Amino acid sequence: MTADPGPATLPLRRAGSDGPLRIGVLVSATGANLRTLIDLGHAEPDRYEVALVASHGTRSKALGLAREHGIEAWPGDFDAHCGTASRASGPAERAVYRRRAREWHDRLDARIAGWESANGPLDLVVLAYHRWIEGDLLTRYHGRMINQHPGDLTVLDAARRRVLTGNDPVALAMSLGHTATRTSCFLVDDSHDGGALLCQGPPVPVRRGVGPAAQELEQKGLSDRPCLEWTVRAFAAGSLALAPDTHPDGSRVVLVDGVATPLGGRQLSARETPEEM
Asked: What region holds the Formyl transferase N-terminal domain (predicted)?
């Protein structure tokens, strides 16, 4: 079920805020999306700043990338506290896993709140993150947390549900015979990959003989990066808002500079640069 932020138009960031957009990043793997944000901050330090990085694990390469650039970076112990979702086989075990996961993220939220008291607030939280989030962290960053998802979330089934959700959307798209894949950036809510779609990167054609891992690697540069850049620029400019209307999948219609967008939000083409978008 998608969280209802209310019937009125909801601006996602007020234009004209002082200082750069201060970004926190939750990471899991290589740090490709984190590098995009760091590069953006280096190119335009008066507009963008990656201020904090946190992970659910200790081995993410993204933690090292953050430290290389002088960004405070926190490893985590999620699996030690919560176990893994794949091993929670029955209803009782799944309930325990979900409770522990919420507790873990609530503690992370409290730690971030303490950090903000000493260092100033974060304006936006970006997820390049392999865990579902519930609880206080999700509540406090409502309307200010986005997720990069390597699947085309405009693909719906007969019941108007999103098809390419979950952990392996590239492999699923290829198994279904899709001729291209693309990244979707959405506003995180209490659903599983069901939030309002803000932007989609350019479609990346599936080349013959290429497997899902190679396809996803190519997609990181050709679709992930421009999708995230556009979305962060739009947040910083105060260009994004949610309309009271909904799409067939139940997600809110996204306004860009007051203009309603189709399901998928701003859909980028390979010909555009971030400055032109």
From this structure: 22-200
Please tell me the pTM assigned to this model: 0.90
184 has which bridge partners? 149, 200
E strand map for 124-163: 124-128, 145-149
pLDDT tens for 109-151 read 999 999 999 999 999 999 988 888 989 999 999 999 999 999 9
* Nearest-angstrom CA–CA distance, 64 and 163: 34
For residue 181, the number of C-alpha atoms closer than 13 Å in the C-beta half-sphere is 33
Nearest-CA neighbor of 249 among 155, 171, 175, 139?
A: 155
Please give the pLDDT value at position 220.
Answer: 93
Residue 9 host element (H or E): none
Question: What's at 192, amino acid-wise?
Answer: H
Q: Residue holding tokens 């995180």?
A: 188
Largest CA distance in the chain: 52
Backbone angles phi, psi at 179, to 5 degrees: -90, -5
Report the alpha-carbon distance of residue 232 to residue 43 in Å, rounded. Answer: 14
> 229: which residues sit within 8 A by CB, 6+ positions away?
36, 40, 274
Question: 208 Cβ partners below 8 Å, 6+ apart?
Answer: none
CATH superfamily of 10-267: Formyl transferase, N-terminal domain (3.40.50.170)
Cα 72 to Cα 66: distance, rounded to the nearest angstrom: 7
Kindly report the CA angle at 129 between 127 and 174, in degrees rounded to 5?
105
